[in-house]
Design brief:
mainly alpha
């Protein structure tokens, strides 16, 4: 449904007198205005221990927007992959514990 809507909007813009370059510039301006409150909301959420747990951003990270991987010289992708792997291991361990704790049916 979303793809069909995008196609219809694209066809409508194609037949409109709208200049595509001006539309591109104004979309970039709009993006620059919209991204500020989104970034503020993300930094507020990143600084809350209740939401982020052990991955809470410190005050300096919030103020300077520096990730801990930049401080330590690590690549962001490697750090994210490690976090995902840690989460997957926790999920697997939890599932294994639940399987081990199930009572065995008598034959």
């Amino acid at each position: 449904m979303i793809a069909i809507s995008a196609i219809v909007v694209g066809i409508a813009v194609d037949f409109s007198p709208l200049d595509p370059i001006k539309a591109l510039i104004w979309s970039a301006v709009l993006n620059g205005v919209i991204v500020v409150p989104i970034m503020v909301a993300m930094m507020i959420m990143a600084s809350r221990r209740k939401i982020m747990g052990e991955f809470t951003a410190s005050r300096w990270q919030v103020v300077l927007r520096l990730g801990r991987d930049r401080r330590h010289g690590r690549s962001r992708d490697r750090h994210v992959r490690a976090d995902v792997a840690k989460h997957e291991n926790l999920v697997i361990q939890t599932k294994l514990r639940s399987v081990r704790e199930r009572p065995v049916a008598a034959c």
